Amino acid sequence: MDIQATTIPAGDDSGPDAAGLDLSSEAGVQRCLQLLNNAGLRPTRQRLALGQLLFLGGHRHVTAESLYEEAMATNAYLSLATVYNTLNQFTEAGLLRRIAADGIKSFFDTDTSVHPHFYLEGEDMLVDVTDGLAFTKVPEALPGHEIARLDVIVHLRRKRT
User: Fold this and answer.
1) 134 phi and psi angles, rounded to 5 deg
2) What tens digit of pLDDT does each residue of 92-151 get?
3) In contact, 87 and 108? CB cutoff 8 Å
4) Which terminus of the chain has a lower count of CB atoms within 10 Å, N or C?
Protein backbone atom coordinates (compact mmCIF):
# COMPACT_ATOMS: atom_id res chain seq x y z
CA MET A 1 0.00 0.00 0.00
CA ASP A 2 1.51 3.36 -1.02
CA ILE A 3 0.61 6.43 1.00
CA GLN A 4 1.15 10.05 0.00
CA ALA A 5 -0.14 13.24 1.56
CA THR A 6 0.51 16.94 1.86
CA THR A 7 2.20 18.84 4.67
CA ILE A 8 -0.03 21.06 6.77
CA PRO A 9 0.86 21.76 10.42
CA ALA A 10 -1.89 21.61 13.02
CA GLY A 11 -1.51 25.27 13.87
CA ASP A 12 -0.83 26.32 10.28
CA ASP A 13 -2.11 29.56 8.81
CA SER A 14 -3.15 27.95 5.52
CA GLY A 15 -6.53 26.98 6.96
CA PRO A 16 -9.28 29.53 7.19
CA ASP A 17 -8.42 32.78 8.86
CA ALA A 18 -11.15 32.80 11.49
CA ALA A 19 -11.23 36.57 11.69
CA GLY A 20 -11.43 36.89 7.89
CA LEU A 21 -13.79 34.00 7.14
CA ASP A 22 -17.20 35.19 5.99
CA LEU A 23 -19.46 32.79 7.87
CA SER A 24 -22.52 34.48 6.40
CA SER A 25 -21.52 33.65 2.81
CA GLU A 26 -24.53 32.02 1.17
CA ALA A 27 -22.33 29.70 -0.92
CA GLY A 28 -20.43 28.60 2.19
CA VAL A 29 -23.62 28.01 4.14
CA GLN A 30 -25.09 25.98 1.28
CA ARG A 31 -21.90 23.93 0.95
CA CYS A 32 -21.96 23.12 4.68
CA LEU A 33 -25.67 22.35 4.61
CA GLN A 34 -25.08 19.86 1.80
CA LEU A 35 -22.10 18.32 3.58
CA LEU A 36 -24.05 17.85 6.82
CA ASN A 37 -27.12 16.49 5.01
CA ASN A 38 -24.98 14.02 3.03
CA ALA A 39 -23.47 12.83 6.34
CA GLY A 40 -26.92 12.38 7.88
CA LEU A 41 -26.45 15.19 10.40
CA ARG A 42 -29.10 17.76 11.22
CA PRO A 43 -27.68 21.21 10.35
CA THR A 44 -27.86 22.97 13.70
CA ARG A 45 -26.47 26.48 14.17
CA GLN A 46 -23.46 25.04 16.02
CA ARG A 47 -22.70 22.42 13.37
CA LEU A 48 -22.98 25.00 10.59
CA ALA A 49 -20.67 27.45 12.35
CA LEU A 50 -18.02 24.82 13.13
CA GLY A 51 -18.47 23.11 9.76
CA GLN A 52 -17.69 26.34 7.94
CA LEU A 53 -14.57 26.87 10.02
CA LEU A 54 -13.44 23.29 9.40
CA PHE A 55 -14.38 22.54 5.82
CA LEU A 56 -14.38 25.77 3.82
CA GLY A 57 -10.68 26.56 4.11
CA GLY A 58 -8.98 23.42 2.85
CA HIS A 59 -7.24 20.54 4.59
CA ARG A 60 -6.23 21.09 8.20
CA HIS A 61 -5.57 19.56 11.62
CA VAL A 62 -7.29 21.09 14.63
CA THR A 63 -7.73 20.39 18.31
CA ALA A 64 -10.97 21.12 20.10
CA GLU A 65 -9.25 23.99 21.88
CA SER A 66 -7.89 25.59 18.71
CA LEU A 67 -11.28 25.31 16.98
CA TYR A 68 -12.97 26.79 20.05
CA GLU A 69 -10.63 29.79 19.87
CA GLU A 70 -11.42 30.24 16.16
CA ALA A 71 -15.14 30.07 16.87
CA MET A 72 -14.82 32.70 19.58
CA ALA A 73 -12.92 34.95 17.15
CA THR A 74 -15.88 34.79 14.75
CA ASN A 75 -18.37 35.61 17.52
CA ALA A 76 -19.87 32.12 17.26
CA TYR A 77 -20.52 31.79 20.97
CA LEU A 78 -20.21 28.10 21.77
CA SER A 79 -19.02 26.23 24.80
CA LEU A 80 -15.89 24.09 24.64
CA ALA A 81 -18.13 21.09 25.41
CA THR A 82 -20.22 21.87 22.31
CA VAL A 83 -17.05 21.98 20.20
CA TYR A 84 -15.95 18.59 21.58
CA ASN A 85 -19.40 17.08 20.99
CA THR A 86 -19.59 18.44 17.45
CA LEU A 87 -16.09 17.19 16.57
CA ASN A 88 -17.07 13.75 17.87
CA GLN A 89 -20.30 13.82 15.83
CA PHE A 90 -18.40 14.86 12.69
CA THR A 91 -15.90 12.04 13.30
CA GLU A 92 -18.66 9.44 13.77
CA ALA A 93 -20.29 10.67 10.54
CA GLY A 94 -17.01 10.22 8.64
CA LEU A 95 -16.33 13.92 8.06
CA LEU A 96 -13.21 13.99 10.26
CA ARG A 97 -10.50 11.58 11.30
CA ARG A 98 -9.39 11.59 14.96
CA ILE A 99 -5.68 11.20 15.58
CA ALA A 100 -4.44 10.68 19.13
CA ALA A 101 -0.83 11.62 18.55
CA ASP A 102 0.45 11.60 22.11
CA GLY A 103 -2.16 9.55 23.93
CA ILE A 104 -3.54 12.65 25.65
CA LYS A 105 -4.59 15.21 23.06
CA SER A 106 -6.62 14.40 19.97
CA PHE A 107 -6.22 16.14 16.65
CA PHE A 108 -9.03 16.14 14.11
CA ASP A 109 -8.01 15.86 10.47
CA THR A 110 -10.27 17.09 7.67
CA ASP A 111 -8.50 14.70 5.28
CA THR A 112 -10.07 11.35 6.12
CA SER A 113 -7.94 9.39 3.66
CA VAL A 114 -5.29 6.97 4.90
CA HIS A 115 -2.06 8.95 5.30
CA PRO A 116 0.78 9.09 7.82
CA HIS A 117 1.69 11.96 10.13
CA PHE A 118 4.64 13.43 11.93
CA TYR A 119 3.95 14.55 15.49
CA LEU A 120 6.39 17.21 16.66
CA GLU A 121 6.87 16.52 20.36
CA GLY A 122 7.22 19.63 22.47
CA GLU A 123 5.69 21.74 19.70
CA ASP A 124 2.25 20.12 19.84
CA MET A 125 1.99 20.03 16.06
CA LEU A 126 0.74 17.38 13.65
CA VAL A 127 2.08 17.42 10.09
CA ASP A 128 1.22 15.20 7.14
CA VAL A 129 4.09 13.11 5.77
CA THR A 130 4.75 14.29 2.21
CA ASP A 131 7.17 11.62 1.03
CA GLY A 132 5.79 8.32 -0.16
CA LEU A 133 5.49 5.72 2.54
CA ALA A 134 5.31 2.14 1.33
CA PHE A 135 4.27 -0.89 3.31
CA THR A 136 5.57 -4.14 1.93
CA LYS A 137 3.31 -6.18 4.16
CA VAL A 138 0.22 -5.33 6.14
CA PRO A 139 -0.75 -7.94 8.74
CA GLU A 140 -3.85 -10.05 8.22
CA ALA A 141 -6.77 -9.18 10.47
CA LEU A 142 -7.75 -11.62 13.19
CA PRO A 143 -10.40 -14.19 12.22
CA GLY A 144 -13.82 -12.56 12.08
CA HIS A 145 -12.34 -9.06 11.89
CA GLU A 146 -11.30 -6.60 9.23
CA ILE A 147 -8.81 -3.74 9.29
CA ALA A 148 -10.82 -0.57 9.86
CA ARG A 149 -7.95 1.86 9.33
CA LEU A 150 -4.21 2.15 9.55
CA ASP A 151 -2.65 4.96 11.58
CA VAL A 152 1.03 5.75 11.30
CA ILE A 153 2.41 8.51 13.50
CA VAL A 154 6.13 9.22 13.52
CA HIS A 155 7.12 11.14 16.65
CA LEU A 156 9.84 13.73 16.15
CA ARG A 157 11.75 15.90 18.59
CA ARG A 158 14.35 18.57 18.06
CA LYS A 159 17.95 17.36 18.15
CA ARG A 160 19.83 18.20 21.30
CA THR A 161 22.88 20.31 20.58
Assistant:
1) -115, 135
2) 999 999 998 877 889 999 999 888 888 888 888 888 888 777 778 888 999 999 988 777
3) yes
4) C
The DSSP letter of residue 142 is: P
Note whether 103 and 114 are within 8 A (CB): no
Kindly tell me the burial class for residue 30, based on how many C-beta atoms sit within 10 Å of its own C-beta (0-12, 13-18, 19 or more): exposed
What's the burial of 77, exposed, middle or buried (CB within 10 Å: 0-12/13-18/19+)? exposed
Partners of residue 134 on adjacent β-strands: 2
> Rounded CA gap, 94 and 88, in Å?
10
- CA 141 – CA 144 distance, rounded (Å): 8
Whole-prediction pTM value? 0.76
